[in-house]
Write a structure and sequence with these properties.
225 residues; alpha/beta; Glucose Oxidase, domain 1; ten-stranded mixed sheet; 7 helices; elongated
Length: 225
């Protein structure tokens, strides 16, 4: 019998690890620029430490302030996975803290992203596991459910699907559909090279911004002497 809203899907189609790892040194901004600048999680979701974020999404939708299903998600996650939690933006109760993160870190889970709150911020700062969240509170979680694992969720205003490639840095997080990843990867690499050239020009001969004046004129901007 179906129990919508309280179920676990154990199947995740993971992208080849080599494809995931290829995004390791590419800034999130360069990736997002090649996804029409509409693929990043909301700026509310901020890094809680300096650990790099890169891996395959395990998705989780929780009841606000409840982390019962997060235990199941950590138990089933594989090394290199990123658990992405739709906690509906609620900041009343922390979804995860030092103890669960220590367990997740031991399992070599790459990161946990929570559209909601975490706690034990001081300990999180020193951890090797990447943690992102919308806020911090000392209030602990409930453990009643319901919730669902590995369904499409909303996190930080983006639809995240199981198996998506998740990349995060100090700017924020971008989610990539594995089917689009090879094309996005090549475009993002080209952007990295292009921007390195622009930086060299700025430091050397200066930055040619003739296109700005042309754009202003084309759009009818009024110039007042």
């Amino acid at each position: 019998m179906s129990n919508a809203g309280f179920r676990i899907n154990n199947k995740v189609e993971r992208a080849p690890r080599a494809l995931v790892d290829a995004f390791k040194f590419i800034p999130v901004a360069n990736i997002a620029d090649n996804m029409n600048r509409r693929a990043c999680l909301d700026a509310r979701i901020r890094p809680m430490n300096g650990a790099a974020l890169l891996g395959t999404a395990i998705t989780l939708k929780t009841s606000p302030g409840d982390n019962l299903l997060l235990y199941a998600a950590i138990a089933m996650a594989m090394p290199g996975d990123v658990i992405v939690v739709d906690a509906q933006g609620d900041l009343s109760n922390a979804i995860v803290g030092e103890l669960m993160l220590t367990w997740a870190q031991k399992k070599e889970i790459a990161g946990i992203v929570v559209d909601g709150a975490v706690r034990d911020a001081s300990a999180i700062k020193t951890m090797a596991i990447s943690v992102y969240a919308a806020g911090v509170t000392p209030n602990g979680p409930f453990k009643n459910g319901p919730g669902e694992i590995n369904i499409p969720i909303s996190c930080g205003g983006q639809v995240i699907r199981p198996g998506d490639i998740i990349v995060g840095d100090e700017d924020g997080i971008v989610a990539i559909d594995p089917r689009d990843a090879p094309d996005i990867l090549e475009k993002a690499k080209a952007t990295v090279i292009k921007e390195a050239g622009i930086v060299a020009d700025i430091q050397g001969n200066g930055w040619d911004l003739g296109w700005v004046e042309k754009a202003l004129q084309d759009k009818g901007c009024e110039f007042i002497a």
